[in-house]
Each structure stands twice: as C-alpha cells, then as structure tokens.
C-alpha cells in the first residue's frame, strides 16, 4: 500500500513508520532523513536565502520546495509501496504529491504541543541503525547505547527546546492546512498519538488493513 503519515514534529511518525515497514514490507520515505544525509549539499545555484539544506534545518525552517520535491519524486518512483513521512508540509508540496502518486491511506497522529516538546527534547537516535529512543518514555537498557545494534545514541541538532518550539510553530502555520485539506477530502484517518506506542500502533495497523 501507499501510506501517508501526517503529524507534528515529535508526534511519533518515525516510530510508527518503522513498524509499518516491518509489517507491510513498504519502503520508508522520509524527507527529514534524506535531508539530514544531504545537509551540506550545495543548493546555491537556486539563488535562495541559504546555500545548504542544513542551514534551514538548524533554524527549524522548511527547506525550499524544489529541493524537497525532487527527493520525494525519485524515492517514490523507486518504491513498490511506501510510507511517506515528513512530506507534504505545505500546500504547494501537497499539489505536487497529488500530481505524482496515488495514496491508499492518509493517517494523522494527533498530539498536543507540550507533549511534542517533551518528546523532541528527550529523543535519542542510534547513529548506526536509526532506531529512536526517549530518555524517559522509552530508554535503552544501557544509557547511550542502542538495544538493537549496540551503536552510540546521539541527540539531533534540531531537538533543542528552542528549535523544537520553532519547528512546532512552522508546522502549525504551514502543515496544519495540509491536514485540513485531507480532512475535507474525507480521507483522513485520525489516530490519538498520545497513547503508548503499542496502542498507537494497534490503531495505525487497523487503519492500514481497512484501507489497503
Ligand atoms: P523531520 O526529520 O521530518 O522531522 P519532523 O517532522 O519534525 O518529525 P520528527 O522526526 O522530529 O518526529 P517524529 O514524528 O518522527 O517523532 P519520533 O517517532 O521520532 O524534519 C526535520 C527538518 O527537515 C525540518 O524541520 C525541515 O527543516 C526539514 N524538512 C523535512 N521535510 C521537509 C519538507 N517536506 N519540506 C521542507 N523541509 C523539510 O518520536 C519522537 C520521540 O517521542 C522519540 O523520542 C520517541 O521515542 C518518542 N515517542 C514516539 N511515540 C511515542 C509515544 N506513543 N509515547 C511516548 N513517546 C513516544
Ligand atoms: Zn542501532
């Protein structure tokens, strides 16, 4: 199936995407990871405010559409079934997505602001396999070490409280209209994202099975 996963920064998109890839054999397409791998890419020829994606990301701002649209187009063309996470983030990206693919399920993980900030500032990520932990909600067995692969855990540069709040503001301004767009279309499946990860997963799995 082609799955779109919407939700604010820290709502649990990465966490649920990992389970979706394992259970449904779909490709995880995430603009955040793709951009982190290309933080230093030279985009000065586009004549924008900054010369690299990383400068936008560290400010909590959106990376410009031409850069992101190209990444998504290539990734979706290569995937036989996907979960798309972190895209679209504004109306222009939504129109672009509509023009290049067909969606089977659109999920929205609903989580309140203060919970988002707690999740983002406590998040730790494995530098080798990308597994995600939380210092309080989902700590690894040994502090700073990945349970799955033994890799070192690090904190993302944009998970400081200040940048996290800026990302949530940018989300509310630019991406809430995207959620509204799919809600009005009548295709949005809303999931209570404040539940424990296993309970969120139960709802996500049901929704995909019902719509795929
Ligand atoms: P991106 O990487 O997409 O980040 P994001 O959307 O801000 O989402 P996150 O990865 O931060 O959160 P998540 O929902 O995946 O949460 P997670 O599962 O880890 O984007 C980063 C930047 O790239 C953007 O700011 C922008 O600059 C740029 N960018 C990306 N896409 C773009 C686009 N399309 N256009 C323009 N620019 C773009 O969970 C968070 C934490 O909570 C973890 O610690 C986890 O363990 C914990 N947790 C998860 N679920 C639960 C639960 N149910 N209960 C308790 N804790 C939980
Ligand atoms: Zn790991």
Automatic annotation (TrEMBL):
First-tier enzyme category under EC: transferase
Swiss-Prot/TrEMBL keywords: ATP-binding, Cytoplasm, Kinase, Metal-binding, Nucleotide biosynthesis, Nucleotide-binding, Transferase, Zinc
GO terms of molecular function: AMP kinase activity; ATP binding; zinc ion binding
Gene3D superfamilies: P-loop containing nucleotide triphosphate hydrolases (3.40.50.300)
Signal peptide, first to last residue: none
Entry's EC annotation: 2.7.4.3
GO cellular component term, pick one: cytoplasm
Pfam families on file: ADK, ADK_lid
Catalytic activity, as annotated: AMP + ATP = 2 ADP
Chain spans, region LID: 122-159
Binding-site list for Zn(2+): 126, 129, 146, 149
Gene Ontology annotations of biological process type: AMP salvage
Residues annotated for AMP binding in this entry: 31, 36, 61-63, 86-89, 93, 156, 167
List of residues binding ATP: 10-15, 123, 132-133, 195
InterPro entries linked: Adenyl_kin_sub, Adenylat/UMP-CMP_kin, Adenylat_kinase_CS, Adenylate_kinase_lid-dom, P-loop_NTPase
Pathway annotation: Purine metabolism; AMP biosynthesis via salvage pathway; AMP from ADP: step 1/1
Residue span, Adenylate kinase active site lid domain: 123-158
Domain of life: Archaea
HAMAP family: Adenylate_kinase_Adk (MF_00235)
Domain characteristics, as noted in the entry: Consists of three domains, a large central CORE domain and two small peripheral domains, NMPbind and LID, which undergo movements during catalysis. The LID domain closes over the site of phosphoryl transfer upon ATP binding. Assembling and dissambling the active center during each catalytic cycle provides an effective means to prevent ATP hydrolysis. Some bacteria have evolved a zinc-coordinating structure that stabilizes the LID domain.
Subunit structure: Monomer.
Role summary: Catalyzes the reversible transfer of the terminal phosphate group between ATP and AMP. Plays an important role in cellular energy homeostasis and in adenine nucleotide metabolism.
Family stated for the protein in its record: Belongs to the adenylate kinase family.
Protein name per Swiss-Prot or TrEMBL: Adenylate kinase
Organism per entry: Halobacterium bonnevillei
Source lineage: Archaea, Methanobacteriati, Methanobacteriota, Stenosarchaea group, Halobacteria
Gene: adk
């Amino acid at each position: 199936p082609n799955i779109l996963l919407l939700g604010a920064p820290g709502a649990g998109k990465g966490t649920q995407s990992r389970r979706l890839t394992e259970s449904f054999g779909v490709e995880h397409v995430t603009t955040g990871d793709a951009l982190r791998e290309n933080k230093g890419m030279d985009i000065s020829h586009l004549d924008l405010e900054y010369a690299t994606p990383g400068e936008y990301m560290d400010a909590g701002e959106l990376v410009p559409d031409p850069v992101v649209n190209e990444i998504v187009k290539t990734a979706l063309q290569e995937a036989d079934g996907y979960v798309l996470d972190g895209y679209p983030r504004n109306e222009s990206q939504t129109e672009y997505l509509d023009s290049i693919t067909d969606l089977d399920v659109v999920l929205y993980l609903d989580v309140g602001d203060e919970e988002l900030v707690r999740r983002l500032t406590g998040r730790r990520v494995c530098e080798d396999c990308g597994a995600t932990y939380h210092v309080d909600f989902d700590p690894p067995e040994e502090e700073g070490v990945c349970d799955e692969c033994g890799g070192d855990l690090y904190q993302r540069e944009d998970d400081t409280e200040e940048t996290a709040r800026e990302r949530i503001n940018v989300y509310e301004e630019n991406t809430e209209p995207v959620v509204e767009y799919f809600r009005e279309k009548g295709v949005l499946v809303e999931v209570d994202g404040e539940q424990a990860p296993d309970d969120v997963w139960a709802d996500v799995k049901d929704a995909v099975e019902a719509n795929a």
